[in-house]
Amino acid sequence: MTVAEHTSAAHPTTAHHTSTGLTNEKLAMWVFLGSECLLFGGLISTFLLYRETEPKAGPAISELYDIPYTSVSSFVLLMSSLTMVLAVAAIKRGDQRNTRVWLMTTALLGASFVGGQIYEFTVFYREGLGYTTNLQGSAFYTLTGFHGVHVSLGIVMLLSSVVMSLRGRLGPERSEAVEIVGLYWHFVDVVWIVIFTVVYLITP
Amino acid sequence: MTTTEHHAVEHHDEEHDHPSDGKYIQIALILGVITAVEVALSYVDVGKLFVPALVICMVAKFAIVAGYFMHLKFDSNLLTRVFVSGIVLAIGVYIAFLGSLHIFS
Amino acid sequence: MAITEDRPLELTTGETVVRQPLGAFTRPRSTTGWRSWLTTIDHKKIGILYGGTALFFFFVGGVEALLIRMQLAQPDGQVLTAGQYNQVFTMHGTTMVFLVVMPLAAAFANYLMPLQIGARDVAFPRLNAFSYWTFLFGGIVLNSGWFLGGSPDNGWFNYAPNSGLAYSPGNGIDFWNMGLLIAGIASLVGAINLIVTALNMRAPGMTLMRMPVFTWMALVTQFLLLFAIPVLTVAQFLLMFERLFGAQFFDPAAGADPLLWQHLFWIFGHPEVYIMILPAFGIVSEIMPTFARKPLFGYPFMVFSGIAIGFMGWGVWAHHMFVSGLGPVSVAAFSLSTMFIAVPTGVKIFNWVGTLWGGKLKFSVPMAFAIALVVQFTVGGVSGVSHAVSPSDTQQTDTYYIVAHFHYVLFGGALFGMVGGLYYWWPKFFGRHLRDRLGWWHFWLMALGFNLTFGPMHIVGLQGMPRRTASYPEGMGWDFWNFIETVGAFLIGVSFLVFAYNIIVSRNNPPAEADPWDGRTLEWATSSPPPVHNFDEIPTVSHLDDWWHSKYRETDDHRLERVEGVKSYSSPEGPSEPPHLPSPSYWPFVLALGLPFVAYGLLYSYWLCGVGGVLILAAIYGWSLEPSVDPGAHAHHDEHEHGHGHDDHDADAEEPVAVATTPEETTE
């Protein structure tokens, strides 16, 4: 037996015993996502607080929303969760090619979401709402900016996974790694679900 | 490559309750429909029902993504409890905070 | 230096040693010397790093305290200007909270948790090292104001809008903000690590309700950190963006609510105080049963009251804001919730008393510190109840009565408990006892000094002496007690000189046994100090206090009888099959190092941010590609099967023989 085969037989990743039966990595990601709820909750609350105050300068943000535009953008992110889940299903089947296809698609959808956001911000800026214009602007851009950075980091992880797959280092025994990237990605989507409803749709 | 096949079979046995690709696409379509409903609500005047209806849609989407896409429905209870703790705590603390600043009055 | 990876090595098994992919950066291998400390991923060494650094910062914070007391020894003190005084008391508080008590707790949690649950290390050893270095750099950034134009001077809680550019134009507040943001990353990452460790890496048979109380309290603390740190992080980012980029969050002129900062800060800040006390409660719950030779009274109540404190601690934060204009509804609600939270702590006090009652008491130095915690925390708790009643708090707030309260609970409580823990576990950590006689001098001087310093503050506080004020005028009637308080503070200082002397002189003591106190928990079941792999064979647990049950059995007439021939779980020969341990690594240090560069860069020059960014990216890249176990380090292990057995509880073994084509995943 070569060292590689002997290794895999002797050290299957699924056999690593833990008290809960979950891997350390998966448990860690969920624990982390629990903490992120407090982070985004704080940013959302700050926005909600200042959405109630009359801006002393510049426009109120609710006047600037382009709901159809943002709906499309939200739908794009939602679909990226679908492609993510398909990527995980693909890698579990050992379908390397489709794993990469779905991961790339997810990354592209995520990138178009971020691109759409950046465009949306430039429109708001042109309409008079800069980052430092008023409380609403600061709170809005900080919240959506944090979310956008999270999406961007997710895209980096997705692309890294594609690269690893291309180099043959992302076999089905590593499907959990992709699943964990997926958990992060879905969470970022779920945060947007909340932001879209609470920030954009529910206006005073 | 016997060992990789062996692993693929092992994995498959453990997760036979995994939704299929087709099921995932259906779920995604449901999410799309709920989003459409939400957007429609912002154009149609439903009076006092507006906020509750939107919140229900939002919670439904959240639960579907968490339960199916994030696989919480099929995974260990512990993960759900850890995640839900964060959510419940965030909601509790921040609503109390906003409440004390008289946002809701 | 040991074998490098350049020359292929013929092994007796016939396999060849693998070449390292990143040839220029060979995996660190040192086990001694400063390099071994820089690259360690061993939870025990990391615990010692946390503890040593915390004690250093305790010295810094202590000097700051003595400066305060010198200034206040007499009316119209001239030792410090008002501006200097503000910096000193701010740094004293911030240092003691974030750079002393929290890392001391982390030291104990890091060292003990894996041992107490029968594991070989934490879930993510490299991440653990990263947490320590990040904490260190955060502490350095926080303290850089002393050298870089002025320290933060707005109190440890740094209220807005005073923290904005208009009132605090220098960089002091930025050092507070960035230093604590960086330290916050350390705490958050550490919390994730320890939670996964406690939930996932317990020895066979160790159910949650068989975990030692210290581990339980540390686990609850990690959950508190997990959820509280992000709230502070939000506040800090808002402040940072306001100060650096002109964002509007806290400026009343822009219509901002000045209470936004206060709420966010105290939503973090109140769980924070439980983060500081729960580990000390856990320590007392270990010390007392040992020196009473009795199990902890009401173990389930101790566990559940700790969890209850963790939960309820989220519902009381605005009691720090009773006079901020919250309004009667909020004040009443938080007043009630604050009264309720005294209950679970009361449960603990009674259970400790119950533990001592009828026990075969040994008044050792650790026991003295533990008893002191119980007495002094109760005093602080009683004044706390008086604060919960908001009308009386209206008089007490911003006076020295509050200063008395929190020093009684944090110093008289948490710090006394942790010092007791140091005396208790010192032989385990360092293989030698601390000297008893010096320990008693330390204890009595510290207890006397502490009570002389903070006891009278109740009085002058109720007499109206305000806090955070650089001087007080003559004729207020406060002179006498302030002088006494200063004397007390210097006594505390002397007590710690005795402690330092004890530490130095104890290096000459004879080696300590594995189980010098006849302990109950698993850390005593291995040598002092433990071998790097903790246990030769992972124990199988069948009881709470399993080690005690291995040593003693109850006879038919209910007497304890020592079981013959019980030996520790580690022997000088070592294990029959060397367990796989993760290898040392540079990357945690490098990744942590990038953070202060980014922080200083934001203040001085974006080029520094660039350097920081490069370090961070390089470290993430290097870390992900590096296998957790160095392939060159375990030449013969292929002969040993990695079974499903408990005798090979790897800390983080993905594929220990990482053939060059399968690098580690990113998730560590």
Label this structure with key terms:
heterotrimer, A: 204 residues, mainly alpha, Four Helix Bundle (Hemerythrin (Met), subunit A), 0% strand, B: 105 residues, 2 domains, disordered N terminus
Descriptive notes:
The complex is a heterotrimer of chains A (204), B (105) and C (668). By secondary structure, chain A is mostly helical. Chain A is built from six helices and no strands. Chain A has a single domain (30-48, 60-201), classed as Four Helix Bundle (Hemerythrin (Met), subunit A), CATH 1.20.120.80. Chain B is built from four helices and no strands. Residues 1-15 of chain B have low confidence and may be disordered. With 668 residues, chain C is mainly α. Helix content of chain C is 58%, strand content 1%. Chain C has helices spanning 33-39, 43-72, 82-116, 125-143, 172-200, 213-245, 259-292, 299-312, 328-356, 365-388, 390-396, 400-430, 436-462, 479-505, 546-551, 587-603, 606-625; strands at 552-554, 560-562. Chain C has a two-stranded antiparallel sheet with strand order 1-2. Mean pLDDT of chain C is 90; it is low at 1-5, 19-24 and 635-668. At the A-C interface, helix 1, helix 2 and helix 5 of A face helix 5 and helix 6 of C.
Average residue pLDDT of chain C: 90
Instruction: Kindly provide the radius of gyration of chain C, computed on alpha-carbon positions and rounded to a whole number of angstroms.
Output: 26 Å
Q: Please name the fourth-level CATH homologous superfamily of chain A.
A: Cytochrome c oxidase, subunit III, four-helix bundle
Which range does the strand content of chain A fall in?
under 5%
How much helical structure, as a percent, in the residues of chain C? 55-70%
How is the topology of this model organized?
The complex is a heterotrimer of chains A (204), B (105) and C (668).
Chain A: H1 3-10, H2 24-51, H3 67-93, H4 96-126, H5 135-166, H6 175-201
Chain B: H1 2-14, H2 21-41, H3 50-69, H4 77-100
Chain C: H1 33-39, H2 43-72, H3 82-116, H4 125-143, H5 172-200, H6 213-245, H7 259-292, H8 299-312, H9 328-356, H10 365-388, H11 390-396, H12 400-430, H13 436-462, H14 479-505, H15 546-551, E1 552-554, E2 560-562, H16 587-603, H17 606-625
Antiparallel strand pairs in C: 1-2
Helix pairs in contact in C: 2-3, 2-4, 2-14, 3-4, 3-5, 3-7, 3-12, 4-5, 4-16, 5-6, 5-16, 6-7, 6-8, 7-9, 7-10, 7-12, 8-9, 9-10, 10-12, 10-13, 12-13, 13-14, 16-17
